Amino acid sequence: MSKNGPIALAYHALFVIFMLAPIVVVCWVAFTPEGFLSFPIQHWSLRWFKALAFYPEFVAAFWRSLWLGALSSALAVTVSVPAALAIARYRFRGREAMTALFMSPLMIPNIVLGIAFLRFFTEIGLSGTFIGLVLSHIVIVLPFALRLTLASAIGLDRAIEHAAVSLGASEWTVLKRVTLPLIVPGLASGWALAFINSFDEVTMTVFVAAPGTETLPVRMFLYIQDNIDPLVTSVSACVIAVAVAALVALDRAYGLERLLVGRGSHGR
Amino acid sequence: MAYLLSLPALLLFAGVVVIPLAMTVILTFHDWGQYKGIEPVFILKNWREVFGDPYYGEMFGRTFRIALIVTVLAALFGAPEAYILNRMKSPWRGIFLLVVLGPLLISVVARTLGWALLFGGNSGLVNKVLLSLGVISGAIPFMFTETGMVVALVHVLMPYMVLSVWAALQRLDPQIENAAVALGAGPLTVLRRIVLPQAMPGILSGGVIVFALAASAFATPAIIGGRRLKVASTLVYDEFLNTLNWPLGAVVAVLLLAALAMIVIGANRLVERRYAQVFG
Description:
Oligomer: heterodimer
Largest sheet of chain B: 2 strands, antiparallel
Helix content of chain B: over 70%
Radius of gyration of chain B: 23 Å
Strand content of chain B: under 5%
CATH topology of chain A: MetI-like fold
Number of helices of chain B: 13
Shape of chain A: globular
Order of helices and strands of chain A: HHHHHHHHHHHH
Distance between the termini of chain B: 31 Å
CATH architecture of the largest domain in chain B: Orthogonal Bundle
Strand content of chain A: under 5%
Helix content of chain A: over 70%
Shape of chain B: globular
CATH architecture of chain A: Orthogonal Bundle
CATH superfamily of chain A: MetI-like
Number of helices of chain A: 12
CATH superfamily of the largest domain in chain B: MetI-like
Strand order of the largest sheet of chain B: 1-2
């Protein structure tokens, strides 16, 4: 296979600059000592990072996003496991339709889900509650959890389970001691992908959250709607730092390519 | 047994997806007034208003025009990048794949904020760079314009296109390229006759994803477009959380969903029929 020529590499450099420019600028501006947005900045300062301590709504929203992501992803994985086992092992009527239904939150625009949840939760009195947030987030992250759970359930070697049964293990023991341990890597990566999607979700959540239950992206979005100042850039810089850390950890643990493409990478 | 296993997920989806969506469709037929609020009656007032007032036609036109331009630009710039990445050697390939796909994990709000900073009125950094390079002769307004929305959306959705083309290129056997070269094909011929046909399913399926996400994007158009330049999703947001005319907002949302479903399903059919042998 031939190598990339100089034109290809120049194109690649411009492409990388395009992809990174807005992210770098946000982090850079966050270090301004001034009381207003200025770019490029003249001096470096941690003023706006320290200022975060005096805006408890951002800090509270950050913790809420973290809990919401962890909880809704864990619940989505829990619900996914039996569903994935059913889809992977049985041929039954409505199997295709059911899979399509579980994957549908990927197809339905989040804005449509947002208003549907708003209407529904208002009717049943869950509007603006944390329970409402969790329910809606389980639904939108379930496709990600299910996809990776399903992949590992399909890849499971049934012979191991049969061996356990022939050695006298009960169905429950097989599930607990053989099946679940074998699909745990798939569950973990499914949880991670679900968590990231929950943590970043803004379009749907903006309809479900209320003052007091706002997630971090919603809080940031509403803040930017009113004014863009260095404070929101320092919040964004923190979010970016968390994402980069997660990215590196995920890549080390699982391989980003495998996680995003959803199948094993073909080495060359 | 299978039904029993899927029961928790089925119950959840019946309760929290099917019922709310059905309620939204019913909502489109309800009446609404400034003082009386939502009245549960069956009328076509909201549908008539959306189809009758050219404002909504213009808004939907803008939404799908932006989505189409974003899709074409993402394919035009993303596909070559996926090919270049595919030809890189490790560790560079892994590193740059991380750089290009990594932004997917960063909140859309933070990425759009970056573009708002870069655009920053007529004296923004993007304009300064373009002016100094002589690409443009006068400052282009990016903030509160369709141009700005397109640039930011291309950036936000680019990883999906690169990912999709990358996945398609993984099936490409480098030996075929070598065989073509050995048989005397020039580099351009190899690109056009060998690489492009094999990358095409990836470009098309990536295009479908990017189009659907661009047409229903919310945070980016809201931040870059401001309060006046509306697309479908920002209009829905306004009707639901500012004007409080929920039935009207529901009509716009249901229309967006229906239009997107038709376009996505139609495009997928087309791609699958055309490339049945590649996908098979």
